Amino acid sequence: MVEAAGTLEVSIWRGGAEGAMQRYQVPARGNQTVLDIVTHIQRELDPSLAYRFACRVGMCGSCAMMVNGRARWTCRTHASRVIGADGRLGLRPLANLPVIRDLATDMAPFFDKWARARGRFQPKDAPDGAVPQEFHVVPPASKQRREADAGIECIGCGVCHASCDVVAWNPDYLGPAALNRAWTLVNDVRDGARQERMEAVAGDAGCHSCHSTQSCTERCPKQLDPSAAIAGLKRSLFWDTLLGRRA
Amino acid sequence: MNRVAQGQMHLWIAQRVTAMVLALAVTVHLVTIILAVRGGLTAAEILGRLRGDALWLGFYAVFALCAGLHGAIGLRNIAGETLGWRGRGFDLAWLGIGLATAGFGIRAAWGLYAA
User: Fold this and answer.
1) Which of A169, A202, A208 shows the shortest C-beta gap to B1?
2) Is residue B69 part of a domain?
3) What secondary structure letter does DSSP report for A9?
4) Does the A7-105 domain belong in CATH 3.60.40.10?
5) Hey, which of A19, A147, B59, B61 would disulfide with A187, CB 3.0 to 4.6 Å?
6) What is the ipTM metric for this complex?
């Protein structure tokens, strides 16, 4: 990319739940990511700016923010792609989570929902946590393995949770990431907690509130499909109930 | 499963099942209307078709029941999400509204049957 010239007008949320947008002038550079811009501000202009990042290469999922109103990984977002014709960029903390300060959100409610959705693998053969004597054979081409594979790469960045209207309307709603995680475990033949997990994801706070509008799927930086996972949970619960299987 | 979540799931299932019935019922209803009005629409013709016909009475009773329940469950979800109207009291109220709506429709179908 050619070297960009000029100055970017960047507005950033400052404060906690109460706060205001603050403007900064940042030099435009070629191949600059949104995270580069935030880092420039923190290092050169205002060291009190709070934000979160670790790997800078799209592996850790900690740098997600609202970029011009849309949740994104800032490390994998080129500034030139998101800055409008007016040269402006607006950054806010991830939506649908409590703000700690500036661009840093409290992720605890997000991960608490994973726990509520029973997002933890529970070995079928060894409920006490011991290593089972025999290993399960899981054919890679089996339907369940493919269903689990489709959602297993989630790194818990919270972009889907911030993009979900249902989470905004109902803070108790488990959200796309936790339900996606539950669906991968429902399809894990080695797991022994299907019953409890299906019970945990049912109802208005669970999969049944999803409207399948698919913002989660559209915005997932890993190109996962939480919406399909949630549909899978609904389908399983539907047939479990209609056919009288315990669910 | 806790009873509240189970009840919410059952409402969801009821809405999906009624949607399936409605898809069929609306099609039958529309096709019937289109065919029936080709020779002009009169009260006498409608009564001629529906009066004393248990099949049509059954069809419209099922149609009205599904429409009432389906609509009320949908309104319950909208009210919960946009107005924060959630909880057992609201659920019972919506169920009552759904059954009352269905009751009006069934009463109308009965009226034509028994006319």
Assistant:
1) A202
2) yes
3) E
4) no
5) A147
6) 0.85
